[in-house]
Specification:
Strand 6 and strand 7 (222-228) form a beta hairpin. This protein has helices at 10-20, 24-31, 35-47, 67-71, 83-92, 128-138, 156-178, 182-193, 197-206; strands at residues 54-58, 75-80, 97-100, 113-119, 139-150, 210-217, 222-228. The chain is built from 9 helices and 7 strands; from the N terminus they run H-H-H-E-H-E-H-E-E-H-E-H-H-H-E-E. The protein is 44% helix and 21% strand. Helix 2 runs antiparallel to helix 7 and helix 7 packs antiparallel against helix 8 (182-193). By secondary structure, it is α/β, with parallel strands linked by helices.
């Protein structure tokens, strides 16, 4: 399996996630020390979807972020680039609507969704601006965007400790749990190269979204960005 690099070729990213799909959720739970469950809950609350709404969960992985939406009576489309992730997701939740799709060319009509959400996937897209524009296109005017993504701890001391964890400990722990270290070395590399909270907010605004705001989770390890598609967007 090729290790995806920071140039993020789509086929390499897909192959990398295919290879870790079978233990992906367990590994995330261990590496985050259970914080991923809190992040998913915060994302769910930020989406604010009501029964009968239609929501796109992009970069759904095995569907862990789509499941609670479906359980609330939301019509959720669970979309991911990785066929391995989708296969694992369908095995666990055959009732969910899983769709294979690329964030750069989403297979949905304009204005299809009341809300769109993407958790820990925007970093992996080769062209973030195009992905944000595609999410805008498939969202109805007045609809919502929620992006949950790794970010930058705000406390300098904590940030230094966290960086050491990313570089030194995370790949070793992943090798023990998932029997795979390359994907998680890539994870550490992309987190460090990713823009901070304010910079990502500006990028979301440039893509055409309005009412852009964010809040930090776990001291800034993760940031939850929210935005709205303007009512007059064309």
């Amino acid at each position: 399996m090729p290790r995806a690099s920071l140039d993020k070729q789509t086929h390499d990213v897909a192959a990398m996630f295919d290879a870790v799909a079978h233990r992906y959720d367990l590994t995330n739970d261990v590496l985050s020390m259970g914080q991923d469950r809190l992040w998913r809950r915060a994302t769910l609350d930020a989406v604010g979807a009501q029964r009968g709404d239609t929501v796109l969960d992009l970069a759904t992985g095995t569907g862990t972020s789509a499941e609670p939406l479906a359980d609330r009576g939301v019509r959720v489309v669970a979309c991911d680039l990785s066929l391995g992730m989708l296969t694992e997701g369908r095995r666990r939740r055959p009732d969910l609507a899983f769709v294979n799709g690329d964030a750069l060319a989403l297979p949905f009509a304009d204005g299809s969704f009341d809300a769109v959400t993407m958790s820990f996937g925007l970093r992996n897209v080769p062209d973030v601006d195009t992905a944000l524009a595609e999410l805008l296109r498939v969202t109805r005017p007045g609809g919502r965007l929620v992006v949950c993504e790794f970010s930058r701890p705000t406390n300098p001391v904590f940030r230094a400790v966290y960086t050491q964890y990313l570089v030194r400990a995370l790949p070793r722990v992943a090798a023990a749990v998932a029997k795979e270290s390359d994907a998680y070395t890539y994870l550490a590399d992309t987190i460090q190269a990713w823009p901070d909270q304010a910079a990502l907010g500006r990028q979301i605004k440039r893509a055409g979204w309005s009412k852009v705001a964010y809040r930090n989770l776990s001291g800034g390890i993760v940031a939850l960005h929210r935005a709205t598609r303007p009512e007059d967007a064309s």
